[in-house]
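Input (nicotinate phosphoribosyltransferase):
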Amino acid sequence: MGIFHTVDDNEIKSGENTDIYFVRTSDILALEGKNPVVTVEITAQNLPDEWGVFCGLDDALSLLEGLPVDVYAMPEGSIFYRGEPVIRISGHYRDFAKYETSLLGFICHASGIATSAAIIKACAAQRPVYSFGSRRQHPAISRMIERSAWVGGVDGASSTSAPAGIPLAGTMPHAFVMCFEKPLDAWLAFDRHAPGDVPRVMLCDTYCDEKREALDAAKAGASAVRLDTPSSRKGDMRQILEEVRWELDINGFPDVGIFLSGGLTADDILKYRDIVDAFGVGGSIANAQVIDFSLDIVEIEEKIYSKRGKKSGVKEVYEFDNGDHLLLPKGVTPPEDAKPMIKIFIKDGQILTKPDMQKSRARVLSSIENMI
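Output:
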């Protein structure tokens, strides 16, 4: 046992981290001599928005590697819609039944974060968005949070646990400013000692009026000023931003940007994106609503089945150049210009290919350009 309340990799990989009814199901099926060949599909019947971003495939493949199954899936970073299968598994049911809990956990959580990040990134209209929310979740999953946010399109992350290849971004906390006699001393110290490649973004709302501190920071050499209390201000945040921008411009600092953070939502970004140069987003990404995926049998011993409320039979998803999707039963010929989205990733337990985080992110960014 570790010192923290976390589940280790071995418990997940062995299938020990599961719901108890899967243990009982497997035991009783074994006693009855039943282990049918089935095909299951993972779909979401309800989404937080009109579309979702599929994420978490990397962990899902690592979980299923070595099991006697075939796994098909949409590429990570694919846009998907309600009722579309994102993963399909074929094999003897008892060989993978106990892995359902972890499998769904991997993709439900990661896809929820990636989806929220993609929506926020689309709302930002080309302005940088940084993930500041790993502190809003258990530290054991901070790497997953930052990876999922990156796949969703953010431009950097604050957590030092972010996977390699994700730029780290962060300015300074209020505590840093408060350790000095006055904000100016803090900003000058930061400028003296921070690495040269770290932008001189100065936090400007610790003690005084934002526009006063912003102007002082600009005079001290700030490349941008960061405002971090939009949700706690009793005044009109729009007015505050306009005043800061006005004072910077009229005093000869038009190139000093405004960085906004602090409880931001997608609606906030839509409201402020015309005047703000970059955003730091915490809980709206890290605490995103999970995608409510479910795993359902659609075929048993090559015969189509479904439970009530689900569509029976194996399905394929096709995508057109304009981004539209088409769902068809397997075996039905699609239109010539429709491209199949579901690919094979595991054959007889062997991984054929794994997601590339950078390609997954590029797939999202190319898809969301005109979505908001």
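The first helix runs from residue 9 to 13.
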